[in-house]
Design goal:
Blueprint (H helix, E strand, L loop, with lengths): L4 E2 L5 E2 L3 H6 L5 H9 L11 H8 L23 H10 L4
Antiparallel strand pairs: 1-2
């Protein structure tokens, strides 16, 4: 690994991940989220990957009743799915 080094102008150069990480401090909100495993909105805390897994459970089914046109029903979103789609500006 590279050590943190200063270049001739005094700027830190050749930073390794551990060097960058060593000075990081968690915010109070991040500490609360880590200890409770809940977001400030009350949702279970997820990694990006587990959130994608949760979102992938959403399905869209088309129903056809006799003598009726195909009717796409509105998907039943969980509160977490609804909030995630709101945050990224997607209407499922």
């Amino acid at each position: 690994m590279h050590a943190c080094r200063k270049d001739t102008a005094g700027n830190t150069a050749h930073l390794s991940y551990s060097c960058l990480r060593s000075g990081a401090k968690r915010s109070i909100a991040a500490e609360r989220k880590a200890s409770t495993k809940l977001t400030d909105e009350g949702f279970e805390a997820h990694s990006f990957q587990t959130l994608l897994v949760h979102l992938s459970t959403l399905t869209r089914n088309t129903v056809q009743l006799r003598d009726q046109p195909d009717t796409p029903p509105f998907p039943m979103l969980t509160p977490l799915q609804r909030r995630a789609f709101e945050l990224i500006g997607v209407k499922p």
